[in-house]
Amino acid sequence: MSPTRLPNALGEFLRARREFVRPEQVGIGADTSRRVPGLRREEVAHLASISPEYYLRIEQGRVRRPSEQVLLGLARALLLDDSGRRYLLRLASPRPFMRAVDDRSTRLDDRVARLLAHWSGTPAYVSDDNQYVVAANALARAWVPPGMLDPGVNLLVSAFEQYADFRGTTSPDAPEYERMHREWEGTLRDLTAPLRYYGRPDDPRLQEIVGMLSARHPVFRTIWAEHLVKPQMSRRTRTFIEPLGWVDFRAQTFEVPHTDQFLTVFFDEPGSAAAAAIAYLAARDELQREGTGSLEVEGSSGETASDSRFSRARDDAPDGTKTSSRSPSGPGAFKTL
């Protein structure tokens, strides 16, 4: 599949963002003759204190390196937050993309590898700026369906494929369909925004992902056209764990210094359902690796010690976490709350 070219990423971003700013947000009165969504080019230019002609040249890609003062003025005019402002500055001063043998996005730092192996009680994985999995520890692999955190798997592509499965297997008349559909679209936006934020427009791998998802999933084309940008950060993640049901975890993502990689860990407060679920997974994984048996959830009269701890934490967690035994038809490990 031929990659999707992004020859004027700066202009596309400016155009998309000005269409999202309502005139009243920047003090412009209502105009019944307005034919364009958002702001006109000349209005953005006025708010940024530059000439309309110069702004037009920037949006058309005819100005290679606008000054930082101009870019900050455009960020104010378009009401960009800190993430949007940093992204705008990076688009105007792109790093040259260099394909090297020891690509920083695919080579795992030895220290991070040792850390992953050491965290026997914490699910953790490493991904790159295009959301390809680089490595995952044993507990993280036990935490998700088989293969989902294998090296080389793209988390964003997996999420859109799961969404397509949800749409194809769930009737719109099903209970809570609309809620689940909204959650899915929110999740997909939350995953797509970091891809644009960290991605380099000239990176062939980014172009391949955008091209493939655009061809397969109309909803991706809609979300990508919104030009949402934000870094990976802390979030709440809901995961279906067999046979425990849905469990809410905390997730925190850290940038790995001097690389294009990110370390994501999952945890929660002691006594919570998530903490008990992690303990359950760790015990199950240890038994499976030793080949000495497996844990089973048999109900209150036949629970193992690990299962009993999970049940108490599930019922008594201070944050009100609950799980159910329904099939994993929702956003799964990608759900961000």
UniProtKB/TrEMBL annotation:
Q: Which PROSITE patterns match?
A: HTH_CROC1
What are the start and end residues of every segment in region (Disordered)?
289-337
* Pfam families documented for this protein: HTH_31, MLTR_LBD
Specify the HTH cro/C1-type domain's residue ranges. Answer: 38-83
SMART domains associated with the record:
HTH_XRE (SM00530)
InterPro entries the UniProt entry points to: Cro/C1-type_HTH (IPR001387), Lambda_DNA-bd_dom_sf (IPR010982), MLTR_LBD (IPR041413)
Where composition is biased (Basic and acidic residues), the residues are 309-319
Q: What is this protein called?
A: Helix-turn-helix domain-containing protein
- Organism of provenance: Plantibacter cousiniae (nom. nud.)
